[in-house]
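Reopening this ticket.

The earlier resolution said the output was attached, but the attachment link was broken on my side. Pasting everything inline this time so it's all in one place.
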Amino acid sequence: MMFPRFRVIALILPAVAALTIPRTGVAQQVLENVPELQRIDVVEHLGDTIPLDLVFTDDRGDPVTLRRYFTADRPVILTLAYSNCPMLCSIVLDGLTNGVQALSWRPGGEFQMITVSIDPLETVEQAAARKKRYMSYLPRASNPDGWAFLVGAAGQSRALADAVGFKYFWDEKSRQYAHPAVVMILTGDGVVSRYLYGIEYKERDLRLGLLEASEGKIGSTIDRIILYCFHYDPAAKGYVLFAGNVMRLGGLLTMVALVAFLVALWVRDRLHHRAGPAAVS
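Inline output:
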């Protein structure tokens, strides 16, 4: 008989594979052969606004609404996880932390992070312990309020999960939640902007996702130029170089350089003509 932990691992590993690559070939076969996996999914709700009046309890024990963490010019990274998860939640949060560590931006500064528990039995103490652990991995300059760990009633977390299309279920045999591996990026108004899948999150994908969600309000001009050259590829589950935009940008830069060259020639010619009569005199 398979032990509960191994049963969960047996569910999780194919789930990660199935939800991080296009649903063709092997991935589709995995979904069809493991009935439980058909209940684990992400139905993207891009452009939808999440309910910001949902009520939770923060890692200090204070009641809060999601609205508290959303401001117009600051994007939000949202994760759904729980403390008693035997493996996948920690792997996702570890991968996210590694990506955030590489960013020049900081949680609580240019963006906000929120982790909401899907386990209604999770306590404030557990949330606080998890926050302490992950905040210790981030640079000391990070604002402690920049990553909120929230717990709450099942109806509140389920409503949030439904709003972002996060499909999960309670597996009675293993006594654990089965769920996908995904990070959501939202605008400061609570609009779902981007989904990033898997257990590793590249600094580039996080940076471009946050820049996209902020509509260019954070980051430098160089960041915005880079965002123009990359676009999100659903098949690759990340940002990839967009050759068409690169060619257009190259053409624009070539035109600018040509105009600058012609202006320089014109200025030199004008100076030469002005200097001519003076030289004759």
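Reporter confirms the inline version is readable. Confidence is low (pLDDT under 50) at residues 1-31, 219-224, 243-253. The longest helix spans residues 243-280.
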